[in-house]
Amino acid sequence: MPVKNRLAELQPEIAAWRQHLHENPELQYELYKTSAFVEARLREMEIDEITPGVGKTGIVAVIKGRTNTSGRVVLLRADMDALPILEDTGLAYQSKTPGVMHACGHDGHTAMLLGAAKYLSETRNFDGTAVLMFQPAEEGGAGAKAMIDEGVLTRWGKVSEAYGLHNWPGIPTGQFAVKSGPLMAATNTFRIVVKGRGGHAAKPHDTIDPTVIGSQIVLALQTIASRVNDPLKSIVVSVTSFQTSSEAYNVIPQQVELRGTVRTLYKESRQLAGERVKAIAEGTALANGAVAEVEWIEGYPGVVNHEAETGYAIKVAEQVSGVPVHPILPTMGGEDFAYLLEEVPGAYIFMGNGDTAGVHHPAYNFDDTAIPFGSSWLVGMVESRLPIA
Question: What sequence ranges are listed for the domain Peptidase M20 dimerisation (predicted)?
Answer without folding.
Answer: 189-282
